[in-house]
Amino acid sequence: SDSNVQKNSGQKSASTVYDDMDDFGFDPLQLSEPNSTNQTWEGARKSIHYLLSSLSYGKLILGSISSRAWSEGGMSETLADLCFMLLLETTKSEQSDVAAHPNSLLYQMQNDGQNDVKDIAAMWDQPLFLLRDRALDKSRGHDALPAYIQLLTAFLSHSEQDVMSILSSPLGKSSPEDVLPPVTVVGLSSLATICSSKEMISASSGRMCGTSVWSVCPREEMKKAIISSLDSLARIVECVRPRKSIFGKSGRVTQEVEKGADESATENSPWIRTTVCILPMIEYLTNLRARFDFQSLFEGGGSRSGALSDLDAKAISDSGLFRELLSMYTNTRKENGTSNTATPSAEDVVRLQLLRTIFMLSTLSPELLGRYALRVPDFAKEVHSSAFTEKHLVDGILWTSAGSSLMENKSDTQKPKLKLRANSKLSKKGPIDTTSLAKRSISGFETMCRSSKKALRSLKQIVQNAENHEMSDEEKAEYDECKVSLGDIIRFSNCLSNCPSATKMWLDSLKNDENSTEKATHHIAELKSIMATLPSFSDETLVPQRGHKKDDDDCAEIEEDNSTVNEVGQKIQTLKQMQRDYGSIVASIRPSVKVIALALESQEGAGLNLKGTVPCDVSSKTD
Questions:
Q1: What confidence tier does 174 reach under pLDDT thresholds 50, 70, 90?
Q2: What whole-number distance in Å separates Cα of residue 129 and Cα of residue 57?
Q3: How far is CA 247 from CA 20, 500, 595, in A?
Protein backbone atom coordinates (compact mmCIF):
# COMPACT_ATOMS: atom_id res chain seq x y z
CA SER A 1 0.00 0.00 0.00
CA ASP A 2 0.93 3.66 -0.20
CA SER A 3 1.41 3.77 3.53
CA ASN A 4 3.79 0.78 3.35
CA VAL A 5 5.71 2.39 0.51
CA GLN A 6 5.99 5.62 2.43
CA LYS A 7 7.05 3.66 5.50
CA ASN A 8 9.71 1.75 3.56
CA SER A 9 10.92 4.88 1.85
CA GLY A 10 11.10 6.60 5.24
CA GLN A 11 13.16 3.75 6.62
CA LYS A 12 15.45 3.90 3.60
CA SER A 13 15.96 7.60 3.93
CA ALA A 14 16.74 7.23 7.64
CA SER A 15 19.24 4.50 6.88
CA THR A 16 20.80 6.66 4.25
CA VAL A 17 21.13 9.48 6.70
CA TYR A 18 22.70 7.12 9.26
CA ASP A 19 25.22 5.87 6.69
CA ASP A 20 26.12 9.43 5.86
CA MET A 21 26.70 10.16 9.54
CA ASP A 22 29.22 7.33 9.68
CA ASP A 23 31.58 9.45 7.64
CA PHE A 24 31.70 11.93 10.49
CA GLY A 25 31.59 9.47 13.38
CA PHE A 26 34.28 7.45 15.20
CA ASP A 27 34.15 4.21 13.28
CA PRO A 28 36.86 1.90 14.66
CA LEU A 29 37.24 0.10 11.34
CA GLN A 30 37.63 3.31 9.46
CA LEU A 31 40.02 4.83 11.98
CA SER A 32 42.19 1.72 11.97
CA GLU A 33 42.80 1.88 8.22
CA PRO A 34 46.31 3.14 7.45
CA ASN A 35 46.61 6.68 6.22
CA SER A 36 48.26 7.10 2.88
CA THR A 37 50.69 9.62 4.36
CA ASN A 38 51.88 7.07 6.94
CA GLN A 39 52.73 4.36 4.44
CA THR A 40 56.20 5.78 3.90
CA TRP A 41 59.24 5.52 6.16
CA GLU A 42 59.13 9.22 6.95
CA GLY A 43 55.41 9.15 7.71
CA ALA A 44 55.83 6.18 10.03
CA ARG A 45 58.69 7.96 11.81
CA LYS A 46 56.55 11.02 12.38
CA SER A 47 53.68 8.95 13.76
CA ILE A 48 55.89 6.97 16.14
CA HIS A 49 57.67 10.14 17.22
CA TYR A 50 54.34 11.79 17.98
CA LEU A 51 53.18 8.84 20.06
CA LEU A 52 56.42 8.74 22.07
CA SER A 53 56.46 12.50 22.61
CA SER A 54 52.92 12.28 24.03
CA LEU A 55 53.80 9.35 26.28
CA SER A 56 53.15 10.74 29.75
CA TYR A 57 51.66 9.12 32.84
CA GLY A 58 49.77 12.23 33.83
CA LYS A 59 48.80 13.45 30.37
CA LEU A 60 47.31 10.10 29.35
CA ILE A 61 45.65 9.64 32.76
CA LEU A 62 47.20 6.18 33.07
CA GLY A 63 46.68 6.31 36.82
CA SER A 64 43.05 5.40 36.19
CA ILE A 65 44.08 1.95 34.91
CA SER A 66 43.59 -0.65 37.59
CA SER A 67 46.39 -2.94 38.70
CA ARG A 68 44.63 -5.93 37.18
CA ALA A 69 44.26 -4.29 33.78
CA TRP A 70 47.83 -2.99 33.93
CA SER A 71 49.16 -6.46 34.71
CA GLU A 72 46.99 -8.34 32.21
CA GLY A 73 47.99 -5.90 29.48
CA GLY A 74 51.67 -6.43 30.20
CA MET A 75 52.20 -2.67 30.44
CA SER A 76 55.28 -2.78 32.66
CA GLU A 77 57.05 -5.40 30.58
CA THR A 78 56.23 -3.60 27.34
CA LEU A 79 57.52 -0.26 28.59
CA ALA A 80 60.67 -1.87 29.97
CA ASP A 81 61.40 -3.69 26.69
CA LEU A 82 60.73 -0.53 24.66
CA CYS A 83 63.04 1.55 26.85
CA PHE A 84 65.80 -1.05 26.76
CA MET A 85 65.60 -1.38 22.98
CA LEU A 86 65.64 2.37 22.34
CA LEU A 87 68.50 2.97 24.76
CA LEU A 88 70.63 0.25 23.18
CA GLU A 89 69.88 1.59 19.71
CA THR A 90 70.78 5.15 20.58
CA THR A 91 74.02 3.87 22.11
CA LYS A 92 74.85 1.96 18.94
CA SER A 93 74.00 4.96 16.76
CA GLU A 94 76.68 7.00 18.51
CA GLN A 95 79.24 4.37 17.57
CA SER A 96 78.11 3.64 13.99
CA ASP A 97 77.02 5.51 10.90
CA VAL A 98 73.32 6.33 10.69
CA ALA A 99 73.47 6.03 6.91
CA ALA A 100 73.91 2.29 7.40
CA HIS A 101 70.26 2.11 8.48
CA PRO A 102 68.34 3.73 5.60
CA ASN A 103 65.17 1.70 6.18
CA SER A 104 65.01 1.93 9.97
CA LEU A 105 62.18 3.58 11.82
CA LEU A 106 64.51 4.59 14.63
CA TYR A 107 66.72 6.96 12.66
CA GLN A 108 66.02 10.03 10.58
CA MET A 109 68.04 10.85 7.50
CA GLN A 110 69.63 14.27 7.74
CA ASN A 111 69.11 15.09 4.05
CA ASP A 112 65.30 15.22 4.22
CA GLY A 113 65.35 18.94 4.96
CA GLN A 114 63.17 18.60 8.10
CA ASN A 115 64.92 19.26 11.37
CA ASP A 116 61.79 19.37 13.53
CA VAL A 117 61.63 15.58 13.92
CA LYS A 118 64.22 13.96 16.19
CA ASP A 119 65.49 10.42 16.06
CA ILE A 120 63.10 8.03 17.74
CA ALA A 121 65.87 6.14 19.54
CA ALA A 122 66.80 9.31 21.41
CA MET A 123 63.39 9.25 23.12
CA TRP A 124 64.24 6.22 25.24
CA ASP A 125 63.57 8.24 28.39
CA GLN A 126 59.85 8.63 27.66
CA PRO A 127 58.85 5.01 28.45
CA LEU A 128 61.39 4.98 31.31
CA PHE A 129 59.80 8.00 33.01
CA LEU A 130 56.30 6.62 32.47
CA LEU A 131 57.25 3.32 34.10
CA ARG A 132 58.92 5.22 36.93
CA ASP A 133 55.81 7.33 37.58
CA ARG A 134 53.67 4.19 37.71
CA ALA A 135 56.16 2.56 40.09
CA LEU A 136 55.93 5.57 42.43
CA ASP A 137 52.12 5.67 42.33
CA LYS A 138 51.02 4.79 45.86
CA SER A 139 47.34 4.70 44.90
CA ARG A 140 48.09 1.65 42.74
CA GLY A 141 50.16 -0.07 45.40
CA HIS A 142 53.45 0.55 43.55
CA ASP A 143 52.51 -2.36 41.29
CA ALA A 144 55.08 -1.42 38.64
CA LEU A 145 57.97 -1.05 41.11
CA PRO A 146 59.35 -4.60 40.68
CA ALA A 147 59.46 -4.22 36.90
CA TYR A 148 61.08 -0.79 37.11
CA ILE A 149 63.75 -1.94 39.56
CA GLN A 150 64.40 -5.03 37.47
CA LEU A 151 64.96 -2.79 34.45
CA LEU A 152 67.47 -0.65 36.36
CA THR A 153 69.38 -3.68 37.65
CA ALA A 154 69.46 -5.00 34.09
CA PHE A 155 71.07 -1.71 33.05
CA LEU A 156 73.78 -2.23 35.66
CA SER A 157 74.57 -5.81 34.70
CA HIS A 158 74.07 -5.55 30.93
CA SER A 159 77.40 -3.87 30.24
CA GLU A 160 79.56 -6.08 32.44
CA GLN A 161 81.61 -7.17 29.41
CA ASP A 162 82.33 -3.53 28.59
CA VAL A 163 83.31 -2.90 32.20
CA MET A 164 85.63 -5.90 32.27
CA SER A 165 87.24 -4.77 29.02
CA ILE A 166 87.98 -1.41 30.63
CA LEU A 167 89.51 -3.13 33.64
CA SER A 168 91.77 -5.21 31.39
CA SER A 169 92.97 -2.15 29.47
CA PRO A 170 96.44 -0.70 30.18
CA LEU A 171 96.77 1.79 33.00
CA GLY A 172 95.51 5.23 32.06
CA LYS A 173 94.58 4.25 28.47
CA SER A 174 90.80 4.55 28.79
CA SER A 175 89.15 7.90 28.31
CA PRO A 176 87.54 9.33 31.47
CA GLU A 177 84.51 10.51 29.51
CA ASP A 178 83.84 7.05 28.06
CA VAL A 179 84.89 5.01 31.08
CA LEU A 180 81.33 3.79 31.74
CA PRO A 181 78.83 2.65 29.09
CA PRO A 182 75.75 4.90 28.74
CA VAL A 183 73.44 2.06 29.79
CA THR A 184 75.32 1.70 33.07
CA VAL A 185 75.22 5.45 33.69
CA VAL A 186 71.44 5.50 33.21
CA GLY A 187 71.00 2.59 35.61
CA LEU A 188 73.19 4.20 38.28
CA SER A 189 71.55 7.62 38.17
CA SER A 190 68.00 6.24 38.01
CA LEU A 191 68.52 3.84 40.93
CA ALA A 192 70.14 6.58 43.03
CA THR A 193 67.24 8.94 42.30
CA ILE A 194 64.54 6.49 43.33
CA CYS A 195 66.46 5.66 46.54
CA SER A 196 66.14 9.33 47.51
CA SER A 197 62.54 9.85 46.37
CA LYS A 198 59.99 10.76 49.02
CA GLU A 199 57.74 7.85 48.02
CA MET A 200 60.48 5.33 48.86
CA ILE A 201 61.47 6.85 52.24
CA SER A 202 58.04 7.83 53.60
CA ALA A 203 56.55 6.13 56.62
CA SER A 204 54.13 4.16 54.43
CA SER A 205 56.98 2.66 52.39
CA GLY A 206 57.74 0.23 55.20
CA ARG A 207 54.51 -1.73 54.75
CA MET A 208 52.30 -3.12 51.99
CA CYS A 209 50.80 -0.22 50.05
CA GLY A 210 47.52 -1.88 49.12
CA THR A 211 45.40 -4.98 49.42
CA SER A 212 45.64 -6.30 45.86
CA VAL A 213 47.92 -9.15 44.87
CA TRP A 214 50.01 -6.71 42.82
CA SER A 215 50.78 -4.39 45.76
CA VAL A 216 54.29 -4.49 47.19
CA CYS A 217 56.30 -3.16 50.12
CA PRO A 218 58.63 -0.54 48.60
CA ARG A 219 61.44 -0.88 51.14
CA GLU A 220 61.67 -4.63 50.77
CA GLU A 221 61.71 -4.41 46.97
CA MET A 222 64.37 -1.71 47.00
CA LYS A 223 66.62 -3.51 49.46
CA LYS A 224 66.40 -6.79 47.54
CA ALA A 225 67.33 -5.00 44.33
CA ILE A 226 70.31 -3.23 45.90
CA ILE A 227 71.60 -6.44 47.52
CA SER A 228 71.32 -8.31 44.22
CA SER A 229 73.27 -5.52 42.45
CA LEU A 230 76.23 -5.41 44.87
CA ASP A 231 78.49 -7.42 42.56
CA SER A 232 77.72 -5.10 39.64
CA LEU A 233 78.31 -2.03 41.79
CA ALA A 234 81.67 -3.40 42.94
CA ARG A 235 82.80 -3.89 39.35
CA ILE A 236 81.62 -0.40 38.43
CA VAL A 237 83.59 1.17 41.30
CA GLU A 238 86.64 -0.85 40.32
CA CYS A 239 86.25 0.46 36.80
CA VAL A 240 86.05 4.17 37.64
CA ARG A 241 88.38 4.49 40.61
CA PRO A 242 91.88 5.81 39.91
CA ARG A 243 94.35 2.98 39.79
CA LYS A 244 97.94 2.94 40.97
CA SER A 245 100.83 0.99 39.61
CA ILE A 246 103.30 -0.90 41.76
CA PHE A 247 105.51 2.18 41.71
CA GLY A 248 102.86 4.30 43.41
CA LYS A 249 101.92 6.34 40.34
CA SER A 250 98.21 6.72 39.85
CA GLY A 251 96.37 6.79 36.56
CA ARG A 252 93.38 8.60 35.10
CA VAL A 253 92.30 11.38 37.41
CA THR A 254 95.62 11.84 39.20
CA GLN A 255 97.53 11.91 35.94
CA GLU A 256 95.20 14.58 34.63
CA VAL A 257 95.74 16.71 37.72
CA GLU A 258 99.50 16.35 37.43
CA LYS A 259 99.32 17.48 33.81
CA GLY A 260 97.57 20.67 34.84
CA ALA A 261 94.00 19.83 33.89
CA ASP A 262 91.42 22.40 34.88
CA GLU A 263 89.22 21.96 37.94
CA SER A 264 86.05 21.46 35.88
CA ALA A 265 87.54 18.33 34.32
CA THR A 266 88.39 16.98 37.77
CA GLU A 267 84.92 17.73 39.13
CA ASN A 268 83.39 15.79 36.22
CA SER A 269 85.57 12.76 36.88
CA PRO A 270 83.76 9.41 36.55
CA TRP A 271 84.65 8.37 40.09
CA ILE A 272 82.93 11.48 41.50
CA ARG A 273 79.73 10.92 39.53
CA THR A 274 79.72 7.21 40.39
CA THR A 275 80.28 7.83 44.10
CA VAL A 276 77.44 10.35 44.24
CA CYS A 277 75.12 7.69 42.79
CA ILE A 278 76.25 4.75 44.95
CA LEU A 279 76.15 6.48 48.35
CA PRO A 280 72.30 6.86 48.37
CA MET A 281 71.96 3.13 47.71
CA ILE A 282 74.13 2.28 50.72
CA GLU A 283 72.19 4.74 52.85
CA TYR A 284 68.97 2.96 51.86
CA LEU A 285 70.39 -0.30 53.22
CA THR A 286 71.53 1.28 56.48
CA ASN A 287 68.75 3.84 57.08
CA LEU A 288 71.31 6.50 57.95
CA ARG A 289 72.33 9.66 56.12
CA ALA A 290 75.93 9.54 57.26
CA ARG A 291 77.03 11.91 54.48
CA PHE A 292 75.43 14.85 56.24
CA ASP A 293 74.37 14.58 59.87
CA PHE A 294 73.72 10.90 60.72
CA GLN A 295 69.96 11.31 60.68
CA SER A 296 67.54 8.52 59.90
CA LEU A 297 66.64 8.18 56.23
CA PHE A 298 63.17 6.68 56.58
CA GLU A 299 60.38 8.84 57.93
CA GLY A 300 58.61 7.48 60.98
CA GLY A 301 60.60 4.25 60.89
CA GLY A 302 62.71 4.84 63.98
CA SER A 303 66.45 5.15 64.04
CA ARG A 304 67.19 1.41 64.28
CA SER A 305 64.43 -0.25 62.28
CA GLY A 306 66.52 -0.34 59.11
CA ALA A 307 69.88 -1.20 60.62
CA LEU A 308 72.29 -3.24 58.54
CA SER A 309 71.88 -6.93 59.25
CA ASP A 310 74.75 -9.37 59.52
CA LEU A 311 73.72 -11.05 56.26
CA ASP A 312 73.68 -7.73 54.43
CA ALA A 313 77.09 -6.82 55.85
CA LYS A 314 78.48 -10.16 54.71
CA ALA A 315 76.98 -9.63 51.25
CA ILE A 316 78.68 -6.22 51.01
CA SER A 317 81.97 -7.76 52.06
CA ASP A 318 81.73 -10.80 49.77
CA SER A 319 80.82 -8.69 46.74
CA GLY A 320 84.01 -6.66 47.09
CA LEU A 321 82.13 -3.36 47.19
CA PHE A 322 83.50 -2.38 50.60
CA ARG A 323 87.05 -3.12 49.47
CA GLU A 324 86.55 -1.03 46.35
CA LEU A 325 85.13 1.89 48.33
CA LEU A 326 88.20 1.86 50.55
CA SER A 327 90.46 1.77 47.50
CA MET A 328 88.47 4.60 45.98
CA TYR A 329 89.11 6.76 49.03
CA THR A 330 92.82 5.99 49.34
CA ASN A 331 93.56 6.27 45.62
CA THR A 332 91.86 9.66 45.28
CA ARG A 333 93.99 11.20 48.00
CA LYS A 334 95.95 14.19 46.75
CA GLU A 335 99.68 13.67 46.50
CA ASN A 336 100.44 16.69 48.65
CA GLY A 337 97.84 15.62 51.19
CA THR A 338 96.41 19.13 51.51
CA SER A 339 92.94 20.46 50.84
CA ASN A 340 91.39 23.87 51.17
CA THR A 341 88.81 23.63 53.94
CA ALA A 342 87.62 27.22 53.37
CA THR A 343 86.52 26.57 49.79
CA PRO A 344 86.57 22.79 49.32
CA SER A 345 86.42 21.39 45.82
CA ALA A 346 83.92 18.83 44.61
CA GLU A 347 86.57 16.14 45.01
CA ASP A 348 87.13 17.04 48.67
CA VAL A 349 83.39 17.07 49.42
CA VAL A 350 82.74 13.70 47.76
CA ARG A 351 85.74 12.10 49.48
CA LEU A 352 84.49 13.27 52.87
CA GLN A 353 81.00 11.93 52.14
CA LEU A 354 82.53 8.64 51.03
CA LEU A 355 84.58 8.48 54.23
CA ARG A 356 81.50 9.01 56.40
CA THR A 357 79.66 6.27 54.53
CA ILE A 358 82.60 3.92 55.10
CA PHE A 359 82.49 4.79 58.80
CA MET A 360 78.76 4.08 58.91
CA LEU A 361 79.29 0.62 57.42
CA SER A 362 82.23 -0.01 59.74
CA THR A 363 80.17 0.99 62.76
CA LEU A 364 77.13 -1.08 61.88
CA SER A 365 79.35 -4.12 61.33
CA PRO A 366 82.41 -3.52 63.54
CA GLU A 367 83.73 -7.06 63.67
CA LEU A 368 83.56 -7.65 59.90
CA LEU A 369 83.74 -4.33 58.07
CA GLY A 370 85.18 -2.22 60.88
CA ARG A 371 88.22 -4.39 61.49
CA TYR A 372 88.73 -4.77 57.74
CA ALA A 373 88.86 -0.99 57.23
CA LEU A 374 91.25 -0.40 60.11
CA ARG A 375 93.64 -3.02 58.74
CA VAL A 376 94.21 -1.02 55.55
CA PRO A 377 97.51 0.75 56.30
CA ASP A 378 97.14 3.91 54.19
CA PHE A 379 93.53 4.37 55.22
CA ALA A 380 94.06 3.86 58.96
CA LYS A 381 97.12 6.11 59.02
CA GLU A 382 95.15 8.97 57.47
CA VAL A 383 91.96 8.83 59.55
CA HIS A 384 93.89 8.32 62.81
CA SER A 385 96.29 11.21 62.28
CA SER A 386 96.12 14.40 64.32
CA ALA A 387 96.14 16.48 61.13
CA PHE A 388 92.96 14.77 59.99
CA THR A 389 91.24 15.45 63.32
CA GLU A 390 92.16 19.13 63.11
CA LYS A 391 90.46 19.44 59.70
CA HIS A 392 87.47 17.18 60.41
CA LEU A 393 86.92 17.21 64.15
CA VAL A 394 83.87 14.94 64.46
CA ASP A 395 85.14 12.42 61.93
CA GLY A 396 88.50 12.27 63.70
CA ILE A 397 86.85 11.62 67.08
CA LEU A 398 84.71 8.84 65.64
CA TRP A 399 87.53 7.11 63.77
CA THR A 400 89.98 7.26 66.68
CA SER A 401 87.26 5.95 68.99
CA ALA A 402 86.56 3.05 66.63
CA GLY A 403 90.25 2.28 66.34
CA SER A 404 90.73 2.36 70.09
CA SER A 405 87.73 0.12 70.70
CA LEU A 406 88.67 -2.47 68.08
CA MET A 407 92.46 -2.36 68.22
CA GLU A 408 93.39 -1.13 71.72
CA ASN A 409 90.87 -2.96 73.84
CA LYS A 410 92.57 -3.97 77.07
CA SER A 411 90.78 -7.31 77.04
CA ASP A 412 92.57 -8.29 73.82
CA THR A 413 95.73 -10.28 74.39
CA GLN A 414 97.25 -9.37 71.06
CA LYS A 415 96.90 -6.23 69.01
CA PRO A 416 96.76 -6.79 65.27
CA LYS A 417 99.40 -4.76 63.51
CA LEU A 418 100.25 -4.17 59.89
CA LYS A 419 103.66 -3.06 58.71
CA LEU A 420 103.79 -0.32 56.09
CA ARG A 421 106.07 -0.52 53.08
CA ALA A 422 109.42 1.11 53.58
CA ASN A 423 108.97 3.26 50.47
CA SER A 424 105.44 4.33 51.28
CA LYS A 425 104.83 7.99 50.57
CA LEU A 426 102.60 8.36 53.57
CA SER A 427 105.37 7.30 55.92
CA LYS A 428 107.48 10.22 54.73
CA LYS A 429 104.87 12.89 55.31
CA GLY A 430 104.27 14.59 58.64
CA PRO A 431 105.26 13.61 62.15
CA ILE A 432 104.42 10.18 63.50
CA ASP A 433 101.73 10.16 66.21
CA THR A 434 103.00 8.32 69.25
CA THR A 435 99.97 8.88 71.49
CA SER A 436 97.33 6.19 71.77
CA LEU A 437 94.10 6.35 69.83
CA ALA A 438 92.17 6.70 73.06
CA LYS A 439 94.12 9.85 73.98
CA ARG A 440 93.54 11.30 70.51
CA SER A 441 89.83 10.60 70.84
CA ILE A 442 89.42 12.34 74.19
CA SER A 443 91.64 15.20 73.00
CA GLY A 444 89.36 15.76 70.03
CA PHE A 445 86.28 15.55 72.23
CA GLU A 446 87.70 18.17 74.60
CA THR A 447 88.44 20.44 71.65
CA MET A 448 84.87 20.06 70.41
CA CYS A 449 83.44 20.89 73.84
CA ARG A 450 85.68 23.93 74.26
CA SER A 451 84.75 25.29 70.85
CA SER A 452 81.05 24.69 71.62
CA LYS A 453 81.27 26.55 74.93
CA LYS A 454 83.12 29.41 73.28
CA ALA A 455 80.57 29.51 70.44
CA LEU A 456 77.63 29.67 72.85
CA ARG A 457 79.15 32.57 74.76
CA SER A 458 80.04 34.40 71.55
CA LEU A 459 76.56 33.92 70.08
CA LYS A 460 75.00 35.25 73.24
CA GLN A 461 77.21 38.33 73.19
CA ILE A 462 76.68 39.00 69.47
CA VAL A 463 72.89 38.77 69.68
CA GLN A 464 72.76 41.01 72.74
CA ASN A 465 75.02 43.61 71.13
CA ALA A 466 72.94 43.58 67.97
CA GLU A 467 70.17 45.37 69.85
CA ASN A 468 72.35 48.47 70.20
CA HIS A 469 74.27 48.62 66.92
CA GLU A 470 74.35 47.01 63.51
CA MET A 471 76.55 43.93 63.12
CA SER A 472 79.90 44.48 61.47
CA ASP A 473 81.42 42.16 58.90
CA GLU A 474 83.73 40.69 61.53
CA GLU A 475 80.78 39.92 63.81
CA LYS A 476 78.88 38.30 60.95
CA ALA A 477 81.87 36.10 60.15
CA GLU A 478 82.20 35.16 63.81
CA TYR A 479 78.47 34.41 63.95
CA ASP A 480 78.80 31.96 61.04
CA GLU A 481 81.86 30.31 62.60
CA CYS A 482 79.96 29.79 65.83
CA LYS A 483 77.16 28.05 63.96
CA VAL A 484 79.65 25.70 62.30
CA SER A 485 81.29 24.89 65.66
CA LEU A 486 77.93 24.06 67.23
CA GLY A 487 77.08 21.90 64.25
CA ASP A 488 79.90 19.54 65.22
CA ILE A 489 78.37 18.61 68.56
CA ILE A 490 74.96 18.14 66.94
CA ARG A 491 76.42 15.78 64.35
CA PHE A 492 78.32 13.87 67.03
CA SER A 493 75.21 13.42 69.18
CA ASN A 494 73.17 12.27 66.18
CA CYS A 495 75.75 9.56 65.54
CA LEU A 496 75.55 8.39 69.15
CA SER A 497 71.76 8.45 69.10
CA ASN A 498 71.32 6.53 65.84
CA CYS A 499 74.32 4.18 66.08
CA PRO A 500 74.39 2.25 69.38
CA SER A 501 77.58 0.52 68.27
CA ALA A 502 79.22 3.94 67.75
CA THR A 503 78.25 4.86 71.30
CA LYS A 504 79.78 1.63 72.59
CA MET A 505 83.03 2.22 70.72
CA TRP A 506 83.28 5.78 72.03
CA LEU A 507 82.72 4.61 75.61
CA ASP A 508 85.28 1.84 75.10
CA SER A 509 87.85 4.41 74.00
CA LEU A 510 87.16 6.41 77.17
CA LYS A 511 87.76 3.31 79.27
CA ASN A 512 91.02 2.62 77.45
CA ASP A 513 92.50 5.90 78.73
CA GLU A 514 92.66 6.77 82.40
CA ASN A 515 90.45 9.64 83.62
CA SER A 516 88.95 10.15 80.11
CA THR A 517 85.43 9.41 81.32
CA GLU A 518 85.77 11.99 84.10
CA LYS A 519 87.09 14.57 81.64
CA ALA A 520 84.21 14.03 79.22
CA THR A 521 81.66 14.19 82.05
CA HIS A 522 83.20 17.44 83.32
CA HIS A 523 82.98 19.12 79.89
CA ILE A 524 79.37 18.05 79.40
CA ALA A 525 78.49 19.39 82.85
CA GLU A 526 80.01 22.74 81.92
CA LEU A 527 78.03 22.80 78.70
CA LYS A 528 74.83 22.12 80.61
CA SER A 529 75.56 24.94 83.05
CA ILE A 530 76.19 27.36 80.19
CA MET A 531 72.95 26.31 78.54
CA ALA A 532 71.09 27.14 81.73
CA THR A 533 72.32 30.74 81.66
CA LEU A 534 71.43 31.47 78.04
CA PRO A 535 68.70 34.10 77.57
CA SER A 536 65.45 33.46 75.73
CA PHE A 537 64.31 36.27 73.46
CA SER A 538 60.62 37.03 73.06
CA ASP A 539 59.11 37.28 69.60
CA GLU A 540 57.17 40.36 70.67
CA THR A 541 59.51 43.16 69.60
CA LEU A 542 58.28 46.74 69.35
CA VAL A 543 57.97 47.87 65.75
CA PRO A 544 57.04 51.46 64.81
CA GLN A 545 53.40 51.47 63.76
CA ARG A 546 50.90 54.18 62.93
CA GLY A 547 48.12 54.65 65.44
CA HIS A 548 45.49 57.29 66.17
CA LYS A 549 46.47 60.90 65.81
CA LYS A 550 46.38 61.54 69.53
CA ASP A 551 48.88 58.74 70.05
CA ASP A 552 51.23 59.86 67.34
CA ASP A 553 52.53 63.11 68.83
CA ASP A 554 55.77 61.50 69.98
CA CYS A 555 56.31 59.89 66.56
CA ALA A 556 55.82 63.00 64.50
CA GLU A 557 59.43 63.15 63.40
CA ILE A 558 59.41 59.49 62.33
CA GLU A 559 56.26 59.96 60.29
CA GLU A 560 57.78 62.93 58.53
CA ASP A 561 60.78 60.93 57.43
CA ASN A 562 59.57 57.68 55.80
CA SER A 563 63.07 56.56 54.98
CA THR A 564 64.01 56.59 58.64
CA VAL A 565 60.94 54.50 59.50
CA ASN A 566 61.83 51.93 56.85
CA GLU A 567 65.43 51.74 58.06
CA VAL A 568 64.39 51.23 61.68
CA GLY A 569 61.82 48.62 60.70
CA GLN A 570 64.35 46.72 58.60
CA LYS A 571 66.81 46.74 61.48
CA ILE A 572 64.21 45.39 63.87
CA GLN A 573 63.23 42.65 61.44
CA THR A 574 66.89 41.66 61.06
CA LEU A 575 67.25 41.54 64.82
CA LYS A 576 64.15 39.40 65.20
CA GLN A 577 65.39 36.97 62.55
CA MET A 578 68.75 36.71 64.30
CA GLN A 579 67.03 36.02 67.61
CA ARG A 580 64.92 33.30 65.99
CA ASP A 581 68.04 31.68 64.54
CA TYR A 582 69.71 31.91 67.92
CA GLY A 583 66.70 30.28 69.56
CA SER A 584 66.64 27.42 67.04
CA ILE A 585 70.37 26.81 67.51
CA VAL A 586 70.05 26.70 71.29
CA ALA A 587 67.02 24.42 70.98
CA SER A 588 69.12 22.03 68.86
CA ILE A 589 72.06 22.05 71.26
CA ARG A 590 70.02 21.13 74.35
CA PRO A 591 68.96 17.63 73.23
CA SER A 592 72.43 17.03 71.76
CA VAL A 593 74.08 17.66 75.12
CA LYS A 594 71.45 15.46 76.75
CA VAL A 595 72.24 12.57 74.39
CA ILE A 596 75.94 12.71 75.25
CA ALA A 597 75.18 12.98 78.96
CA LEU A 598 72.92 9.91 78.82
CA ALA A 599 75.61 7.97 76.96
CA LEU A 600 78.14 8.79 79.68
CA GLU A 601 75.70 7.81 82.39
CA SER A 602 74.83 4.49 80.78
CA GLN A 603 78.48 3.39 80.29
CA GLU A 604 77.13 0.58 78.12
CA GLY A 605 76.42 2.22 74.77
CA ALA A 606 72.90 0.85 74.39
CA GLY A 607 69.47 1.78 75.51
CA LEU A 608 69.42 5.43 74.45
CA ASN A 609 65.71 5.94 73.89
CA LEU A 610 65.17 9.36 72.34
CA LYS A 611 62.40 10.71 70.14
CA GLY A 612 64.34 11.14 66.92
CA THR A 613 67.43 13.12 66.11
CA VAL A 614 68.30 16.77 65.99
CA PRO A 615 68.12 18.51 62.62
CA CYS A 616 71.59 19.72 61.81
CA ASP A 617 70.91 22.96 59.98
CA VAL A 618 74.23 24.49 60.99
CA SER A 619 76.37 22.24 58.86
CA SER A 620 79.79 23.13 57.60
CA LYS A 621 80.64 24.13 54.06
CA THR A 622 81.88 20.64 53.22
CA ASP A 623 78.36 19.26 53.66
A1: very low
A2: 8
A3: 87, 42, 48
